[in-house]
Design brief:
By secondary structure, the chain is of the alpha+beta class. The protein has nine helices and 13 strands. It has helices at 18-28, 37-51, 88-97, 111-114, 145-182, 187-202, 240-248, 299-344, 348-361; strands spanning 6-8, 15-17, 56-62, 68-75, 101-102, 120-125, 131-137, 206-213, 216-223, 232-235, 252-254, 271-279, 282-291. The strands form three sheets. Strands 10-9-8-13-12-11 form a six-stranded antiparallel beta sheet, with helices on both faces. The protein has a five-stranded antiparallel beta sheet with strand order 4-3-7-6-5, with helices on both faces.
Length: 362
């Protein structure tokens, strides 16, 4: 029979401390955290440090090669730059193995940890190898199987709550984004606002819009790519995922778009969700969100991107109508000016010159 305050673990006959689990879950269900992801993550890191007697706790997202991309939350690292890799080998080991990695198997301690007297720790992946909970403490006693089980369970619950937080925030952000898109008066402005919206609303690592004309995709409006990336152009038939989006007029998710660019040297993305932007019944553009790691976008992500693509389609249509009307207005003003000049002139040569100039302009 299990001791009071413990329950059977997930694997290997280990046990999970129900008391600590209850305290961790209490942080996750705190209503004050529902719309504040960063605040929630900071509280989770603090609580993990308290319950496991840790000097340092980090919650990171990483690429498929284990390189840090975003430090979600950090406890006990005052003075360390937010973009510094606290323990890259630990992240890489946990990510590549897809399991908890003990400090002893992760090589020598980096300076940030060694100077704090760290002697034991564990890195636990909790989102298919793309997000890691890392706990470090000053005592040399290794984390037990029960503790690792508890951290893994906490990570899975954390992911569920983060998705809920994201959806709640998206409701307000979608309304605000719709208003911003509706105020755009040029196609260029529409595309810029659309890409910004994808980054904000979907938490994407990168995003972009590809305009389609004569079977060629021009990927010229984008965010989140390395310095020096200037977009690209490629035949649609060479881009299998985009070609499926255009052919079937449907949103497509993929965990491998690493070849989805003519030049892959500055193309760090792995996963994507891509939606068609229909203009007068024809797919005139694609709207895409990307992750660096090969992590599936969800059905909710797909739904949000469809909504954004619909907004973009309406805004692009309106912007083109505005631009067409503006050209018509400028042409009418030019013709009125020409008519007045012709009526005021008695010189055949001058009339001929003005007519030639007007024809060249129109």
């Amino acid at each position: 029979m299990l001791a009071q305050g413990q329950e059977q673990g997930l694997a290997g006959g280990s046990t999970i401390d129900a008391v600590r689990m209850g305290e961790l879950l209490a942080v996750l269900v705190d209503n004050d955290n529902i719309t504040y992801r960063d605040n929630l993550l900071e509280k989770v890191a603090w609580k993990l440090a308290e319950l496991f007697e840790c000097a340092v706790v980090t919650i990171d997202t990483v690429t498929e090669t284990g390189q840090l991309t975003v430090a979600y939350a950090r406890f006990g690292l005052d003075g360390v730059p937010p973009d510094a890799d606290v323990h890259p080998l630990g992240l890489r080991t946990a990510t590549m193995a897809g399991r908890a990695a003990m400090l002893a198997e992760c090589g020598p301690l980096p300076p940030h940890l060694a100077e704090r007297g760290i002697r034991g720790g564990v890195c636990v992946p909790f989102v298919r190898g793309s997000a890691v909970l890392s706990l470090y403490r000053t005592k040399a006693e290794p984390f037990t199987a029960s503790e690792v089980d508890l951290i893994e369970v906490m990570g899975r619950y954390l992911m569920l709550v983060l998705r809920r937080v994201q959806r709640v925030a998206q409701l307000a952000q979608l309304a605000e984004h719709s208003a911003r898109v509706g105020e755009c008066r040029s196609e260029r402005e529409v595309l810029d606002v659309a890409v910004d919206g994808v980054m904000t609303l979907m938490g994407a690592d990168a995003a972009g819009v590809g305009l389609i004309a004569d079977g060629v995709v021009s990927f010229t409006t984008h965010r989140g790519f390395p310095a020096g990336f200037d977009g690209w152009k490629a035949p649609l038939e060479e881009l299998s995922v985009a070609a499926a989006v255009v052919r079937d007029k449907r949103t497509v998710r993929s965990t491998d778009v690493r070849t989805h660019a003519p030049d892959r040297s500055l193309w760090p993305v792995s996963a994507a969700v891509i939606a068609p932007v229909e203009l007068d019944g024809v797919v005139g553009a694609i709207l895409a969100a990307y992750h660096y790691a090969p992590v599936d976008f969800t059905a909710d992500d797909e739904y949000v991107l469809k909504l954004l693509a619909g907004q973009v389609a309406a805004a692009m249509t309106n912007a083109r109508l505005v631009e067409t009307a503006e050209r018509g207005r400028r042409n009418a003003e030019s013709l009125r000016g020409l008519s007045a000049a012709l009526n005021a002139s008695l010189s055949v040569t001058e009339i001929g010159d003005r007519l030639c100039t007007a024809m060249a302009m129109h």
